Amino acid sequence: MSGAAVVPNTALAVECSGVTKSFGEGSARVQALRGVDLEVRSGELMLLVGPSGCGKTTLISVIAGILDQDGGDCRVFGESVLGMGAREKIEFRARNVGFVFQAFHLLPSLTAAENVSVPLLLNGVPRNEALARAKEILALVGLGDRTAAYSSQLSGGQQQRVAIARAIVHEPRLIVCDEPTSALDGATGISVMELLRSKALRHDRALVIVTHDSRIFSFADRVAQMNDGRILEVGEPALAKA
Amino acid sequence: MRFIALRMLLHDRAKYLGILFGITFASLLITQQASIFCGLMTRTFGFITDTGLPDVWVMDPKVQFVDDVKPLQDTELLRVRGVEGVEWATPLYKGMLKARLDDGSYQTCIVIGLDDSTLVGGPPEMVEGSLADLRRADGVIVDAFGAAGKLARPPAVKGAKPRPLGVGDTIELNDHRAVVVGTCRVSRTFQSNPVVYTTYSRATTFAPQERKLLSFVLAKAKPGVAPADLAARIQRATGLAAYTHEGFRDLTMLYFMRYTGIPINFGIAVILGFIVGTAIAGQTFYNFTLENLPHFGALKAMGATNGTLVRMIFLQAALVGSIGYGLGVGGAAIFGAVTKGTEVAFRLPWWLLLITAGAIAIICLVAAILSMIRVIRLEPAVVFRS
User: Fold this and answer.
1) pLDDT tens readout for residues B153-165
2) Together in a domain, B213 and B103
3) Which of the residues B299, B384, B385, B386 would you substitute to probe the A interface, choosing the one with the greatest number of A C-beta atoms within 10 Å?
4) Of A57, A114, A118, the CB nearest to B302
5) Where are chain A's structural domains?
6) Based on the domain organization, do B22 and B140 belong to the same domain?
């Protein structure tokens, strides 16, 4: 494992039990999750790996509170998102969850600092204060000199760094990442994972990362192997298969 | 989040300009066509507006509009004068007569015959000469636009510009000699015919022989008598139709609205502008939202509420709507300024700006609602499916 500095504590960040989710109706119905049980500890970086269509993305969507499961329970820091009202769920997400997307999803019309400030604005932080904080975080991820750059002026690796800064700027307790390295070359992918490991992970925060990229398995504390909507096993990174 | 909404909109220049074009086009077409319509309608009752002194117009009950002259017997003037509440009443002749031009051609003119003693009903503004000059032998006052246009004298040298009819020139009205003693400025007429003012007695001499020649009786109410009340009294006492200034103006305008294709033709242009504007702006705005759906999805995932996103879209629509409205209305106003004094009838009343604003608001609302529905229905989980 590279750059491991945080020791996972025993508190559970994510606790899923018997989570099911299906899409479509009748013959077109697809069972994406078939009773998933998963625990992610605070301070832990967990990878969700498995073949395409095995339910990884559906699972992190449920964990992040942007998709409702059909059955089972999924608690994030002890709170069940399913039981919350729509407004409460949105507020919970805005406060507690950071996102890193495969396609970065940076707003092209905003500068790096403005993009990073978005979660703070959504949490009601005044614009100037949010921008100042965003610049600090950009400096933390090594982009202190690119705060005024637009995404079109940044490389893929730099864009993902901005996305990571955006995911951590509002101090969320859970960060979910969807294929954060798949759009990047090998070396850049490794540096992004190093950044996630060193700057995003804290003893009171958990990272759940969906990936196909076996080169980054070594950055995980644990790897959950999924197939056909189920967790097959959760174990050491060395034992995991892409 | 307002600045994000505005940045998103302005960042995509092509889409932004496309939306702006649609709204500007609609605003321009609606305002310009409706202004021309208003201008034409104003021309229909221009003569009534110009004749501002009398309170009540008395005429044959069958008259439908100002140019629909149905002559009365001269004795009707005396009957009107006898109605209680009438301060004074004067005769007015209004007819179409042919003027023979120097080159031998004929031009139809609107001839107005004013009461010989008072000259009530004269033009609102004299350019040359004075109204009293009508008392000179064979005197007529010609409207300046007609004098410089349809009644202008042919040039002495071939290829030169025609010379405007001026004081001292003579014309032939229905084979009668008339001497121009002045020129005046009047509202443009609906058919753009030159207007010739003269005295009542002279006008009836010019006119073809008919048993009845009195077109209208113009009456003034005594102080303290409301024009509408006086009109009702005259109507009761004489059996003639009597309208206040405004009533006769509305009667004329309604006639043109009801019996000519003008409202339909301009209405079609206005509706087309509205539809095309809605289609262009709506489609472009919707495409703009579709292209930004992943970003809206990301914002939703990060904790933006539907309300926040709806406000963002509304702000974007309001911005392009305001700018497009301003450009369109400004363009129409420039068109009006450029065409002032030409054949183009253009009148832009303040309330037309409100109507255009309402139409543009509807266009923006339609465009925004389509986008809002899409964004509200958007599942934030879509951001993981790229």
Assistant:
1) 887 777 788 888 8
2) yes
3) B384
4) A118
5) 12-239
6) no
B64: β partners = none
**Residue A121's closest chain B neighbor by CA?**
B1
Is the residue at B255 inside a domain? no
pTM of structure: 0.75
pLDDT single digits (tens) B239-265: 999 999 999 999 999 998 888 888 788
Q: Which residues pair with B124 in a beta bridge?
A: none
Q: Which residues contact B158 (CB under 8 A, 6 or more apart)?
A: none
Architecture of domain A12-239: 3-Layer(aba) Sandwich (3.40)
Closest-CA distance, A178 to chain B, in angstroms, reads 7
H-run or E-run covering A136: helix A127-140
> What value of ipTM does the predicted structure carry?
0.85
Residue B95: domain span:
73-239
Token pair 């970086």: residue: A45
Token pair listed for A87: 């407004």
Chain B closest-CA separation from residue A34 CA (Å): 19
Tens-digit pLDDT profile for residues B111-168: 999 999 999 989 999 999 999 999 999 999 999 989 988 888 887 777 788 888 889 8
Which residue, among B301, B86, B107, B120, has the nearest Cα to B196 in the 3D structure?
Answer: B107
